[in-house]
Amino acid sequence: xxxxEEKLAQSLTAESVELVPFLPYxxxxxxxxxxxxxxxxxxxxxxxxxxxxxTVLDLACGKGAVSIKIAEQFQCRAKGYDLMSDFIKEARxxxxxxxxxxxxxxxxxxxxxxxxxxxxxxxxxxxxVGNVLGEPPQMLNRLKEALKPAGYILLDDGYALxxxxxxYTRKDWLKFFEQTNLMLLDEITIEKDHLISLCDEQISxxxxxxxxxxxxxPYKADLxxxxxxxxxxxxxxxxxxxxxxxxxxxxx
Length: 252
Fold this sequence. Notes:
Elements: H1 3-11, H2 23-26, H3 37-46, E1 55-59, H4 65-74, E2 77-82, H5 85-97, E3 104-108, E4 121-127, H6 136-145, E5 147-160, H7 170-179, E6 182-189, H8 192-216, H9 221-240, E7 242-251
Parallel strand pairs: 1-2, 1-4, 2-3, 4-5
Antiparallel strand pairs: 5-7, 6-7
């Protein structure tokens, strides 16, 4: 497995790259993978970020939920890249369902190898992807490469409630924004009650699919059980130690 596949596994809370071929099956009931399209649409609307002439780049787009809902709402063009062929196929099908196939382009690609300077878009979306493009300063500078002057970034991530926790704090993120010459315009944090409900639903779906896979591949039962445990652990962190947040950033 390549380093990109290792990072893909990490971004989807898979502890082993051995699980990668099974992720489309395990996640088949989920369209929105991590990021909230509604929160992103709200931030774009509140700050008048996009018009019908705008272009959007969605890196590690998953099944295309964010791109599709942005294209539908603002009638602008959106392009998404993801390493998972099954996700790209589903994104294209969903674009057709939402009648935005003419506005959305979804392509399989390793985003770590893209020449982002060739993109030159108005908005880059980087939703719940983790460290695929490196640590925050490196990642933010890479995202900026894809932007037109005065372009915007929608970044879905999280911050720790205390500095003792092994995660970036909000203060750390503000420092990263300053270091990379980005202005924080706004942010939306996920409400705890909504988060708990969302986690419960997702864990239920994933557990069901895991049990089905265990019947087909009993010798890999530990692998699937481990994935369910990792999903539960991530939800517990988000419910108790980490605040999920979507930042809207603008180039200075």
